[in-house]
Write a structure and sequence with these properties.
Layout (H helix, E strand, L loop, with lengths): L3 E3 L6 E3 L31 H11 L4 H5 L3 H13 L3 H17 L14
Antiparallel strand pairs: 1-2
């Protein structure tokens, strides 16, 4: 009897791993679906959104606001608006763009923004 159970529809003794009763053909258990594993080192932020924001609005730091890096986003924005560090923010955005392309750019929590 160990490793067996009764069908809740017809009462037949069946294997405990059965999902469908071999006698009556009715479903006796819910299908076991594996839970998706979530890698805690991967950011929930979209890689493509980060890439496009960095490509088109990277000089003003919009991609940094998107990934939660508000402080450095403000620094980039102020430098770009004042013209004080436009070259610096351009280089900074280029480095960030390369990092995003390589999957090495991190969000505020230190998780990698990667392609899914």
């Amino acid at each position: 009897m160990e490793g067996q159970k009764y069908c809740k529809h017809c009462g037949e003794l069946i294997d405990e791993e059965c999902v469908v009763c071999p006698k009556c053909g009715k479903q006796v258990e819910d299908l076991k679906v594996a839970e998706p594993t979530i890698d805690p080192s991967i950011s929930p932020k979209s890689w493509i959104a980060t890439l496009l924001l960095c490509l088109f609005l990277g000089v003003i730091g919009i991609h940094r606001f998107y990934t939660g890096k508000i402080g450095t986003g403000i620094i980039m924005l102020v430098c770009a608006i004042t013209g004080f560090g436009l070259v610096v923010t351009g280089i900074w955005a280029l480095v960030d763009f390369i990092m995003v392309c390589m999957g090495k750019f991190k969000d505020k929590q230190g998780r990698y923004v990667k392609r899914s």
